[in-house]
C-alpha cells in the first residue's frame, strides 16, 4: 500500500496521505504500481470528461482532457519531453546533450516538441468515440506509465546520479513483471484492442529507447517522461482504429 | 541533380545519398532548387496525409500532417520563427536584437510565436476541403521554399560572418531566383491554375511583409528571419488555399 502511495505522490499532484518526502530507495519498488496510478489519472480525466459531456462541444472535451492530464501530473512528463527534445535533437556531443537536458531553460526543439505532442493529443482525444472515452483514458493512462517501468527495467541509465539511476538501483527485478500484469489487466478496460495498446506501448518504448541510445549512453528521467507522453499519444491515436478493426 | 540533392539535404532530414562532403559553395549553388525541394516535401506530405486519412479521424490526420512537416524539416524554419520573434522582442538596437536571435534558449515571444504557428498550421490544414487537400499540401511547402530563395536574392544580409546564410546569399543570383520562381509558378499554375497561383502569391506577399519588418528592425535579413519568412509564407499559402481552393 505504501508503495502505491509513493508512486501516486511521485507521478501526480493529487494530495497524498504520506506527507513526507519520498526516500530514494522507495522509488524503485514503487514502480510496480505505476500502471495503477496511470489508471487512476486516466479514470479521473475520464470522469471529468463524462461530467462535462452534456454542456461541452467535442473540441472542448478534448481540450479539457489534455489540460486535465497536464494539471494532474504537474506537467511532469511534458517537462521530460521538452528537455529530451532539446538535448537529443541538438547537434553536439553526448556530454553536452546531457548538460542541455539538465538545463532548466527551454530551447526551440522543446517548444516545437511540446506543441506538437499537445496538438496530436488534442486531435486524438477529439477522435475518441463517445461511448469508449472513459475506458480509453484508463487504458492509455495505465500503459503509458507501464512504458516508463519497461524503459527503466530494460535500459541502462545515462548518469551515475539522477532519477533514472536512483530508480534503477532500488528496483528489485519484481517491478516489471508485476507492472506488466497490472498494465495488461487495466488495459483490458478498453477490451481486446486495449491489449493491442500494450503492444503499441512496448514498440514505442523500444523505438524511443533505441533512438536515445544512439545519442546518449543511457536513459534519463527526462527520457522516461518523453516516452510516457509518446505512448499516451500513440495509444490514443490507434485505439479508435483498433476498435474499428475489432468490430468489423 | 547534385545541386538538388544538396538542397534537399540542407532543407530536410531525409537520408541523403551524398557521400562526399558538401562545401559552402555547393550549398550556395543549390539555392535555385529550393522550390523544387518544397514540391518534394509537399509530395511526401500528400502521401502521409492520404495514409493518415485512410486510417484515422480527419482531425488526427491533420495533426499528423503538421507533425510530419516538422519531422521532415527537422523544425528548421520553426526554429527561425522562434529566434526571430525573440530577437524582435529584445531591446531597441540592431545589435541587441541580432545577439538575442543567436541565443539558443527560447524566450517568451519566441515560444508564443512557435506555438501559434503550429496551431495555425493545424487549423489551416484541417480546413482544407477533401478533394483539393493534396494541391494545397504541395503549394504550401513550395511557397515557403520559394520565399527563402527570393529573400536571399532580393534583400541585404544582416550579418557579416561566413556561414550557411552568407553562402546562400552569394549563390542567390537573379538567374537562379528566376529559375526557382518559374518552378514554383509552373507547379502552382499546373496544379490549380487560378487558386494555386493565388495561394502561392499570398505566401510570397506575406514574405515581403516579413522581410520589410526585418529590414526595419535589423537593417538586413538573417538565416533565422528567412526561416521565419519561409514558415509564415507556407502558413499564409495554406490559409489562402483553404479559402480559395473549393472543390
TrEMBL record, chain A:
Q: Which GO terms describe its cellular component?
A: plasma membrane
Which cofactors are named for this entry? Mg(2+)
Topological relation to the membrane, as annotated? Multi-pass membrane protein
Q: Which residues cross the membrane?
A: 33-54, 60-78, 106-128, 176-203, 223-243
Q: What is its EC number?
A: 2.7.8.26
State the pathway, as annotated in the record.
Cofactor biosynthesis; adenosylcobalamin biosynthesis; adenosylcobalamin from cob(II)yrinate a,c-diamide: step 7/7
Q: Which domain of life is it from?
A: Bacteria
Cell location: Cell membrane
The record's principal subcellular location, in a coarse class, is: membrane
Return the broad EC class. Answer: transferase
Spell out the Pfam families in the cross-references.
CobS
Sorted alphabetically, the keyword list is: Cell membrane, Cobalamin biosynthesis, Magnesium, Membrane, Transferase, Transmembrane, Transmembrane helix
Q: Does the keyword DNA-binding apply?
A: no
Q: Name one GO biological process term.
A: cobalamin biosynthetic process
Protein family (similarity comment): Belongs to the CobS family.
Listed HAMAP family: CobS
The protein's name: Adenosylcobinamide-GDP ribazoletransferase
Annotated organism of origin: Handelsmanbacteria sp. (strain RIFCSPLOWO2_12_FULL_64_10)
UniProtKB/TrEMBL annotation, chain B:
Tell me the GO molecular function terms. Answer: adenosylcobinamide-GDP ribazoletransferase activity; cobalamin 5'-phosphate synthase activity
Q: Where are the transmembrane segments?
A: 31-52, 59-78, 105-125, 134-158, 178-211
Keywords per UniProt: Cell membrane, Cobalamin biosynthesis, Magnesium, Membrane, Transferase, Transmembrane, Transmembrane helix
List, separated by semicolons, the cofactors it needs: Mg(2+)
Q: Which GO terms describe its cellular component?
A: plasma membrane
Which enzyme class, named as a word?
transferase
What the protein does comes down to:
Joins adenosylcobinamide-GDP and alpha-ribazole to generate adenosylcobalamin (Ado-cobalamin). Also synthesizes adenosylcobalamin 5'-phosphate from adenosylcobinamide-GDP and alpha-ribazole 5'-phosphate.
Annotated family: Belongs to the CobS family.
What's the protein here called? Answer: Adenosylcobinamide-GDP ribazoletransferase
Amino acid at each position: 500500500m505504501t508503495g502505491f502511495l509513493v508512486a501516486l505522490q511521485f507521478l501526480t499532484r493529487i494530495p497524498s496521505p504520506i506527507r513526507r518526502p519520498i526516500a530514494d530507495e522507495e522509488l524503485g519498488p514503487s514502480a510496480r504500481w505505476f500502471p495503477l496510478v496511470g489508471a487512476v489519472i486516466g479514470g479521473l480525466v475520464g470522469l471529468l470528461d463524462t461530467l462535462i459531456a452534456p454542456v461541452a462541444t467535442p473540441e472542448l472535451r478534448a481540450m479539457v482532457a489534455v489540460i486535465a492530464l497536464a494539471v494532474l501530473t504537474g506537467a511532469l512528463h511534458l517537462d521530460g519531453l521538452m528537455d529530451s527534445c532539446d538535448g537529443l535533437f541538438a547537434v553536439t556531443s553526448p556530454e553536452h546533450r546531457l548538460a542541455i537536458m539538465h538545463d532548466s531553460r527551454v530551447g526551440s526543439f522543446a517548444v516545437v516538441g511540446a506543441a506538437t505532442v499537445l496538438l496530436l493529443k488534442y486531435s486524438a482525444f477529439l477522435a475518441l468515440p463517445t461511448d469508449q472515452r472513459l475506458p480509453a483514458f484508463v487504458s492509455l493512462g495505465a500503459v503509458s506509465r507501464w512504458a516508463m517501468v519497461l524503459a527503466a527495467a530494460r535500459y541502462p541509465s545515462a548518469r551515475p546520479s539522477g532519477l533514472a539511476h536512483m530508480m534503477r538501483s532500488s528496483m528489485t527485478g519484481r517491478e516489471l513483471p508485476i507492472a506488466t500484469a497490472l498494465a495488461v489487466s487495466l488495459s483490458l478496460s478498453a477490451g481486446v484492442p486495449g491489449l493491442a495498446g500494450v503492444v503499441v506501448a512496448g514498440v514505442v518504448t523500444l523505438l524511443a529507447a533505441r533512438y536515445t541510445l544512439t545519442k546518449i549512453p543511457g536513459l534519463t528521467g527526462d527520457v522516461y517522461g518523453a516516452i510516457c507522453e509518446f505512448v499516451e499519444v500513440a495509444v490514443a491515436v490507434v485505439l479508435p482504429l483498433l476498435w474499428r478493426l475489432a468490430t468489423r | 541533380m547534385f545541386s538538388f540533392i544538396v538542397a534537399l539535404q540542407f532543407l530536410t532530414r531525409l537520408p541523403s545519398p551524398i557521400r562526399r562532403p558538401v562545401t559552402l559553395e555547393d550549398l550556395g549553388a543549390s539555392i535555385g532548387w529550393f522550390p523544387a525541394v518544397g514540391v518534394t516535401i509537399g509530395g511526401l506530405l500528400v502521401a502521409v496525409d492520404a495514409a493518415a486519412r485512410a486510417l484515422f479521424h480527419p482531425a488526427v490526420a491533420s495533426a499528423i500532417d503538421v507533425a510530419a512537416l516538422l519531422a521532415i524539416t527537422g523544425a528548421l524554419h520553426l526554429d527561425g520563427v522562434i529566434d526571430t520573434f525573440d530577437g524582435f522582442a529584445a531591446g531597441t538596437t540592431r545589435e541587441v536584437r541580432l545577439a538575442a536571435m543567436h541565443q539558443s534558449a527560447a524566450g517568451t515571444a519566441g515560444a508564443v510565436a512557435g506555438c501559434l504557428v503550429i496551431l495555425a498550421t493545424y487549423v489551416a490544414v484541417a480546413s482544407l476541403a477533401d478533394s483539393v487537400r493534396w494541391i494545397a499540401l504541395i503549394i504550401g511547402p513550395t511557397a515557403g521554399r520559394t520565399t527563402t530563395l527570393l529573400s536571399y536574392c532580393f534583400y541585404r544580409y544582416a550579418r557579416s560572418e561566413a556561414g550557411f546564410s552568407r553562402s546562400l546569399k552569394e549563390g542567390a543570383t537573379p538567374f537562379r531566383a528566376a529559375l526557382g520562381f518559374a518552378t514554383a509558378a509552373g507547379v502552382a499554375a499546373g496544379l490549380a491554375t487560378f487558386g494555386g497561383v493565388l495561394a502561392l502569391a499570398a505566401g510570397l506577399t506575406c514574405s515581403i511583409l516579413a522581410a520589410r519588418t526585418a529590414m526595419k528592425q535589423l537593417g538586413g535579413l538573417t538565416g533565422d528571419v528567412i526561416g521565419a519568412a519561409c514558415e509564415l509564407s507556407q502558413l499564409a499559402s495554406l490559409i489562402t488555399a483553404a479559402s480559395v481552393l473549393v472543390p
